[in-house]
Each structure stands twice: as structure tokens, then as C-alpha cells.
Amino acid sequence: MARALRRPNVRLKLPKIPRLPRTDEPYEDVFDEMTLQEHLEELRTRIVRICVSIGIAFIAGLFLSKPMLEEIVSRANADINGGLDIKSPTDPITIYMKIALYIAIGFAMPIIIWHLIGFLAPGLTRKEKRVLFSSLPFVTALFLGGVSYAYFFAVPRAFDFLSSFQSDIFSWEPDGGEVINFYLTVMIGLGIAFQIPIVMFLLAKLNIVSPKRMAQYRKYAAMVILVIAAIITPTPDPFNMFFVALPLLLLYEVGIVIGRVFARPSKTATA
Asked: What would the DSSP string read from start to end of 43-65?
């Protein structure tokens, strides 16, 4: 009798989805030892690559500098009197190139952060690497959020106040260099200040400060935030300072919630 043919029992194995290592698994950190010369050579290589990336992005910045400068002139209410005032004959080209450079740095920021983390990663533990890499997308998003808030809301409101203050006595003819520095200072300041939830998440995740302790420090944090807002705020009036401090206070509360939900500090954390 002929044997019946049987289909082979073949089980298809699904590909495993890569994941970051768990911080609660037992492991032993292994650090690669490098000499001082090797560290300096790696640092030089990364700096060169960062400079090349900024140089390539600078080409795009040259094309975007003029429309951004026109937008800044409009938001500074300087188009009423024909544009920004200048003091030096080289101010137009200097301001134009300065805006192009900052645009280039903004475009190259992911590469800059990548090389910075790549240089520091060999000296970090497995847990620190996991926490750091998991927070990088949120660092970028919050920084862009702070810059956008300053560009579209905080700075225009400040210019509206400054240009209308005692307008029957003062003639509003702002200097071009001062306006650009004004914009950059507030944008970078708020971009950094918007990192409050990330800092609180890292402190809770690394068991340095617990979310419970952060909630107890709320009133002290509010005082520090008001001081930061007074430094960042471009005008001395309390209304604009309130518009700068309000999102920072909300971000502090968001940081407490994120620490409680996602950080999950262990029992060894600070009580």
C-alpha cells in the first residue's frame, strides 16, 4: 500500500521586533576603554562632520533668510517706517548671514544631537542610554514648541506693546541688529525652558527626585519659573511676563504627571 503523502508541518517564525533593553533586567555594564588620543580623534571627527552638515544647511539658509527677515520686520512693526534701522554699512549683510547661520544650525540640529549623544554614549550605563534615547524625540518636539511659541506669540505681543508705548513721544525705528538679537534670545530661551517636563522625567526615571517630592516643591518651582520668565520676557510689564510664565507652569504640572505615569521610580527613589 502506497504511503500517503503528508504535508510537512512547517511553522513560520515571525521576525522579532527590536526593542530597547529593559532597565529592570539583570545585566552588567561593559565600558570600552579609550585613550585620551582616541577620545580627541573621535571628537575631532565628529566636530568636522557637524561643521560639514551646518555648511550644507547654510546653503538652504541663504534662500530662507530673506523671507524670514521680511516676516520679522512685519512682526516688529518696522514696516510702517520703511524697515529696520541700521548703524553700520555692513549691518545688512551681517544680519542676513546671521539669520542664514541660525537657520542652518536649526536644520542641522538632529545631526548635532546625534554626534553629541554618540560621543557621550560609551560612558553611559545601559539604563542611562535607554532613558536618554527614549527622551530625544520629546526634546526636539518641546524645543520646537518653545521656539514656535516665542516666534508666533510672545515676541509679536512684546513688539506690539513696545511700539505703541508712548508713541506720541517716541518714534518707533528699531535697530536691525537689536531686533534680531531680541528674537533669538527669546526663542532660544523659551526653547530651553520648554524642556522642563524632560528634565523632570529624567530626574524621576533615574531615581534622583520622585514625582511626589516634585509636587511638594510646586510653590518653590513657581517662584523659580517666575524669575526665569522675568529674565526671558523682553518687556518689563507683568502681562507679557504672565504669557511667558503660564506655559512653563503648565509644563511643570505636565512633568509631574509624566513622572508618575511613565517614570515609575523604584522604592529606592527619594521619598
From this structure: HHHHHHHHHHHHHHHHHHHHHHH
Residues 85 and 133: their CA atoms lie apart, in Å, by 45
- Give me the residue spans of the domains in the chain: 36-263
- Could you tell me the pTM of the whole model? 0.72
In 3D space, the residue among 216, 224, 211 whose CA is nearest the CA of residue 263 turns out to be 211
Name which of 2-6, 195-199, 234-238 the model is least confident about. 2-6
85: phi then psi, degrees, rounded to nearest 5: -85, 150
Higher pLDDT, 265 or 49: 49
- Round to whole Å and give the CA distance between 87 and 175: 8
DSSP-derived secondary structure letter, 24: T
Burial class (CB in 10 A: 0-12, 13-18, 19+), 94: middle
- Which amino acid appears at position 80 of this protein? I
- Measured over the CA atoms of residue 225, residue 231, residue 234 and residue 235, the dihedral's sign is positive
- pLDDT, average across residues 221-226: 89
Please write the tens of the pLDDT for every residue from 62-100: 998 888 888 888 877 776 666 777 787 888 888 889 889
